[in-house]
Amino acid sequence: MYNIAVMGDRDSIYGYAALGLNIFPVSDEVEGRKVLKKLAEGNCAVIYITEALAKILEEEIDKLKERPLPAVILIPGISGNTGQGIRTFKKSVEQAVGSDIIFNN
Fold this sequence. Notes:
The chain is of the alpha/beta class and about 100 residues long. The chain has helices at about 10-15, 30-40, 50-55, 60-65, 85-95; strands spanning about 5-10, 20-25, 45-50, 70-75. The protein has a four-stranded parallel sheet with strand order 2-1-3-4.
């Protein structure tokens, strides 16, 4: 059975535990790399990562995009939405369908 994980600073992700998701509070880049690698090699199907942490781990996340699992999805953190999550989602949809069906730009 696959799991769903949430990575980021504690204040941004602790609410996801109430939904039954596995949370992984990360405080620095080194710890983030270790946790992401552990989750990617495990039985995790979806990894939600705060946009701030994703910016730091961009290279590792790009490598994971070449694999079918896990799906890495960016979420806003407590500091606010940077827009990176929606841009990544838009790009994925455009690649899958061949055109912008979300924003029609």
